[in-house]
Design goal:
Chain lengths: 315, 301
Amino acid sequence: MLWYTLRRVAYVLPILFGVSIVCFSFVHLAPGDPTSAVMPEFASPELIAQIKRVYGFDQPLPVQYFRWLGAVLSGDLGVSIISARPVWGELRPAILNTAQLAIAAVAISLLSGISLGVLAAYTRRRATDRAITTTAILGVSVPHYWVGMVLVAIFAVTLGLLPAMGMAPPDKSGFGLNDLRFMILPALALSMIPTAIIARSVRATVMDVRKQEFVQTLYANGLGRRRIFLHVVKNAAPSVLAIMGLQIAQLLGGSILVETVFAWPGTGYLLNNAIATRDLPLLQGTILVLAFFFVMMNFLVDLVQPFLDTRIKRQ
Amino acid sequence: MSSSTANSTQAQIEIVRRPARIQLTYWQGVGRRLRRDPIPMVCGGILVLIIAAAIFAPWIAPMDPYKTSLLQRLQPIGSPGHLLGTDELGRDMLSRLIYGGRVSLLMGLLPITIATLVGSSVGIVAGFLGGKTNMVIMRIIDVFFAFPSVLLAVGLAGALGAGPVNCLICLALVFTPPITRVAESATTQIRNQDFVEAARATGASAPSIIVGHVMTNVSSLILTYASSLISVAIVLSSGLSFLGLGIAPPTADWGLMLNTLRQSIFIAPVNAVLPGVMILITSVCFNLLSDGLRTAMDVKP
């Protein structure tokens, strides 16, 4: 087991290194100079040189990269060009807000995705299954930011039931009903795609497992339906888990668009502002942190999987 | 003995009576199976209509999609002269939706075409050569898998700056790694099979084996996979336009229309969500068509 863990770590480290290179290059991909966004229109060459020196842009690229990497590893993501505040200071509250939204969306998509998938697998080729698979296809193809707009149009504008955008103003009572009301619509929009994909894969896996011989043996042995269902779940869990992990991680990316629709002050909203103002260090830091979470999420899934599926351990 | 003679004469009579059955090529078989499947055919029909409308937009669109009218802003659906109403600047929605297909469809199809060409050649070469070359290429590809696809697209587009060409580049970059991975794993499975070994033994060069044996065997898998990405590309490129990273206003584009109409959602909610319906229809149709193609080609994912 330790050997397996070490091998996964050895696999993740070069990927993280590659991610850091890609994120670093974001700043230098941009046409012109990284500082040109804030440079006064008629800046003198001396001023330009001075600003470049302050940000370290006058050094050769490899030097800049390792300097940047060293700073990142010690927790310093640089300084926002627009606000002149540390990137991490801007990022921290945004991450917490995104996490709230993501957790709600994950809860919704796990609950509905798994139950719809199992239901579809057990009503194979009947009306219920057809309805669920069709909905799943719709859910995969639908632009989720548009779903967000439709939800706003229905529940906020037409029915006036829920707030259209933003977060509940902070109060002392902690997380309450009002926070939840603001969260429902964005979380629903965000959970759309993962729900559909999880439902689809749960259906396919459960159907596959039910076709295997050991299930027939269990039936022949006279086991009750409920006990057999437990066996099916146990066998379907590992591969479903892998897909769920990936989908939950993809939520982080999807939240950019949904947060923009709902003006939810999370990482996506921050990223959008960074793009609009061409604040490249902020863009770079946000993407680096999100990609780091994404890699770690996949890493965790890889680590947990052998505990659920003993077949992987033996290989 | 006699019965077998009788059988063979009977068989001969059969042959004489019926014209010899035409042997279908693989692609003819795929085409025939596809034609008999109603769902992909209907979806294909809808897509042909949408694409034709986009191509022939100047002749089909009832009005000029850029003509604004301050007096007729946000007219509801079915108002006189404007079948689908007007947008926030009083431009005819139907005409804009027809014109919008031009950019939106192109932004879905072109990046996938580029990504398929690049990704499959890199993947096939990596898979065929194997060894260290394969490892280096696939580790680089793995780095791109470390980003959620939307994040990578937004990050790249954000860094490169807005604009249709940049949008195209970053979408192609986002979709190349998954296609490369599919091509590589398919090629790795093929390269150790006996017929490739036999071709090598007869002295065929690597390029001729790749073209003659590997590509013919992996192309259907790559093609079905790439076709399943088209709908993702359309949704993603509309998403980039929605964030203002795609094409610039006032050009009609479904994603951009959603973006500009968003401010009007409290006044005219139906108009505001209308462009999304077009994205949804196109994306669903491409998805179902790709599913049908996979069934007809008998590709196992």
